[in-house]
Fold this sequence. Notes:
The complex is a heterodimer.
Chain A: H1 4-25, H2 33-38, E1 42-46, H3 53-67, E2 70-75, H4 80-85, E3 96-98, E4 113-118, H5 121-132, H6 136-144, H7 146-151, H8 158-173, E5 178-182, H9 189-204, H10 206-212, H11 230-241, H12 243-257, H13 263-275, E6 279-285, H14 289-301, E7 309-317, H15 324-328, H16 331-346, H17 356-387, E8 393-398, H18 407-418
Chain B: H1 2-11, E1 16-21, H2 27-31, E2 41-44, E3 47-52, H3 54-66, H4 69-76, H5 79-87, H6 91-105, E4 117-121, H7 125-141, H8 146-159, E5 164-171, H9 174-191, E6 195-203, H10 210-219, H11 228-258, E7 262-266, H12 275-289, E8 298-300
Parallel strand pairs in B: 1-3, 1-4, 4-8, 5-6, 5-8, 6-7
Antiparallel strand pairs in B: 2-3
Helix pairs in contact in B: 1-12, 3-4, 3-6, 6-8, 7-8, 7-9, 9-11, 10-11
Amino acid sequence: MHSNVSSMAIRTRLISQQGKKMARKSSSAAQTFDALIASREIVVCVGSGGVGKTTTSAVIALHAAIQGRKTLVLTIDPARRLANSLGVEELGNDIQQIPLERFRKLGIEPKGELWAMMLDMKESFDHLVDTHAPDKKTRDEILNNRFYRHFSSSLAGTQEYAASERLYEIYNRGEFDLIVLDTPPTSHALDFLEAPNRMADAVSSRALQWMYKPGAFTGRSGLGLFSVGTSYVVKTIGRFTGAQLLNDLGVFLRTFSTLFEGFEERARGVQALLLGDKTTFVVVTAPDTLTVEEALYFHDRLGSDSLHVGGFVVNRVHPMWVDREGVSEPLEALENELKIMNEKMVEQTESKVTDFAEFAELLHENVVQLQLRATQDASSIELLREKLPAHTALATVPYFSLDIHSLEGLDQSRRALFE
Amino acid sequence: MSSAFALSCAQRGQKTLLIELNVKDKVSSLFGSEKVGTDIAKIDDNLYAVNVTPAAAMEEYALMILKVRLIYRAVFENRVVRSFLRVIPGLNELVMLGKAYYHVMETDAAGKPVWDKVVVDAPATGHGIFLLQIPSVITSLINSGLMYDEARKIEELLQDPERTAINLVTLAEELPVNETMMLRDVMRDKLKIPIGYVIANAVYRPLFDEAQREWLDKSAELEPSVEPRMRGFMEAGRFRAGRVRLQQLYVKRLEQEADLPMLRIPYYFMDRMTFAIIREMADALERQLDGDSDASNQSAG
Lengths: 419, 301
């Protein structure tokens, strides 16, 4: 097993190769979001929780499918309403086809196929064990281990790793023209890139190797690695955790490490795919200042030259419904116009609104409030334009009054992104 | 939300400690106080805050047990030990909870509790569950050692309805409401942690009454003949009415399905949280909490 140093070296090398390629490419003008998606085979959507990542992933996949590509969306959230709005009961852990006929109602002629699968993290990790265990006995030992049962999906980076391995596996089957991956809510783009390394590091770290040795904490055999004060160290830790825990953990990690025979090679494959030019990361964000700051932070950490982030999507942008001048006009004018409109409407039906002075005031208050938000959203987007490199596609999706989880909602959002 | 909740407790005269768990400190910018670090800092009348990091909590805890800093250095600052401690699953979470536990139990020289209320700003759903289940996972895995003793004590505190309540904060939207219902099930059925309130955050003031909303809907037919400025007012009105309608649907679902007392916090149009907004949120909480007896002294949300 190699040390951290070698896997870091791999990463650095990949990034710098990639960097040279991109530097040549990015000299052209900013590409549209549409062109970005059309030119890639893998799109990874990242961002903080609650920004509409799952929906954006679905919408990107939907668009590609309508355009004629055979597309798969791997989603994380059990978003039943999203599934319903796509016309299926719910998304399961198997790849299933989403019928697109319903979009004909909206005058759309879908030319490709849309497939979807929900990525259950526990199941993905079990799948990983299943694939990599050297034999059935080891596999069962791991799956039944109580540490594994509690912690498999929560050890640092494991979720991201399980997801990216699954992506790698499906990609290599070559069945899809485009795969869109929705990522776990907490994860940063960086976690995705680093997950393979971190897993490799975890199983090869000196501390763990020390633990793999049977009886490391109760006998003497595992203690050879350190000369001074080792038994004291072990004793002290043992006081915290109880010796039994350490032994159990040792057994678990030892078994678990057998999974990673040849692991580095595979991790390298996963990483090359994620860093390669077939893949793009798309950062999804909301327009509020804090979330945008966080999104820019991910972006910076990914490398200031933005090697892998091809696009930004800003969801829920408040439109500027009425301009500044319009807002400052006197309320009486608004009231009069409402009355004129009302007369036209009364011809058809009975109107129940009587106090138009009050109504005008409320409509005005509403616009003032929303304008506050719209102004802030606009300056966030301006900030993004300023900070992002010219070649990064920046798409915005307005905040709609209708439920996004509906056929019409999905299509509105699709048109906002791509047209 | 936790800041507003803590502030409302402090305003009611309770000496309150607000705990952030290993996050980028937001409290100090809200309260305009000094940066909140790993030492307790006063941020307002009756209100104190601390940001708990695993490393600091571990050091504090280890020192409490080992007594001598030199030994701590020798053992815990050893590189190998450090990397080893990093991979013990759940250890970070346990020491952070342990720190919260310590403050709940902390007494002054006269034996009186130091804190009337300890408010913990817990992480979002997935990680929150992971954090709160750590003590019971540990007690089910091991049955001796200091870690077991700690986990057992924390578990008892978390499950005690006299002392702990978890508040579930949500938005009135599809995914957050689903998540909240799932979170409630896990807390109630699996972790047995008592739930206080479900708090619906960012709820729009309806502004328009039913007749006005209908009028707005109908006015859409006139749209082509209406000048742009007027159309803007109409569209903005319909947007508000539409969002309010959606939110009311989800608030209703929460009321019907959650089976928990509910608090509502209004939507604020300023996107930067300021102290003024936190104070307004705290007032909104206070008005709704008035009359509710509130015995628990630890709260997470």
